[in-house]
Sequence to fold (142 residues):
Amino acid sequence: MALTAQTKDICLIKIMNQRPVYIDLRKIKLPMSAFSSITHRLSGMYIFFISLPLFSVLLYLSTKNKTAYENLYDSLNTFSLFSAFVIISFLILWYHILTGVRHLIMDFFHIGETLMGSYYSSIFVLIIWILSSCSLIGYIYL
Fold:
């Protein structure tokens, strides 16, 4: 059965009149695996645009000369906004590594591909990250 030009136009008009639906993301309850995936991508952007330049400058300053190294060492050992920024950047890098390993395990070994498996692996990674972050901060500042 061939469609006439008029029916094609009517179908096209119906398709074009479908407006995009506004979805308020604050009202949607995302699964834990989606939260983990989104934060993994956001942490990757943070690493690329903020942490990578920061760590390159820190590497340059630490290898420039002895006085620059000592100044950098002193500024990182005292609690300041700069040292907190470096530690937060490192913790974001650590979170990105942990969630990246989780994604690699899911891709290569097919572990946690079900909804419950991805939920539990997301919770596990988040708990490991929180515990290791707290122990690192406690080790540095206590």
The chain has five helices and no strands.
